[in-house]
Amino acid sequence: MRYNGLEVFYKGSGGVENAIVLLHGWGASSGAMDGIYNYLCRNGKSVYAIDFPGFGNSDEPPEDWGVYDYADCAQFVIESLGLVKPVAVGHSFGGRVALILAARKKVSKIVLADSAGLKPKISLKKRLAIRRYKAAKRKGKQTENAGSDDYRALSPSMRKVFVRVVNTHLNSLLPRIDVPALIFWGKEDKDTPPYMARKLNKGIKDSGLIMLDGAGHFAYAERHDVFNAAVRAFTE
Fold first, then answer.
1. How far apart, in whole angstroms, are the C-alpha atoms of residue 81 and residue 199?
2. Bridge partners of 10?
């Protein structure tokens, strides 16, 4: 599918009513959610999955893209396929997109699996690391190896996209979300810590929270049995 000159890959089939759209995390692709995709297909659901631009089989976006551009792209795919207010299931970065789609009233329900999008608490360690990075940049020192693993794995243009994405906070959208939300989280998540799950639960009025012991940022895959059953029940 073409979107603003980009080739955007998607897979899926089924009817346009009661469909489910899977939105993968940053640095991954639709294949990362094959467990839930295959499970829902086996259970007769209409399921679609997107490769966000820059990942999987989709083209890399322009360097001035941000999270709202990704939401625009996902909305375009949904509308082009004729899907009628599907359920959006988003992991991590995909949760950011799901939050925007819900605030726009483009989906009927959302599942947020260890979702990103909220403004994080900044620890002293993090503040010091940022200060060291800025000081090194001012002195003209090499900073290519600075930043997270996600950041270092990207092309130069995608690094600019990543910085814009992670610095866009979606807290103000929560009061505008009036669709049911299932929040699924690993208690050991270090990337999007559990306090974010509780904030989402408090900020989205029609939401439920499932917290899992012994699971981390990929709780949906680590405990796929629980996640799959929860999503199936939630989307009935």
1. 33
2. 50
Packing angle between helix 67-80 and helix 93-103, nearest 10 degrees?
A: 70
The whole-number average pLDDT for the span 130-147 is 59
Residue 70 is predicted with a pLDDT of: 98
What sign for the dihedral angle of Cα 42, 48, 161, 153?
Answer: positive
| Closest residue by Cα to residue 200 from 114, 134, 139 | 114
Res. 80 pLDDT band, cuts 50 70 90? very high
- What are the tokens at 77? 């795919």
In whole angstroms, what is the distance from residue 161 CA to residue 171 CA? 20
Give kind and range of the element (H or E) at residue 88: strand 87-91
Structure tokens at 141: 């020192």
**In angstroms, rounded to a whole number, what is the distance separating the alpha carbons of residues 177 and 105?**
8
Q: How far apart are CA 59 and CA 37, in angstroms?
A: 22
Structure token pair of residue 117? 């999008």
Question: Per-residue pLDDT averaged across 37-56, rounded?
Answer: 97
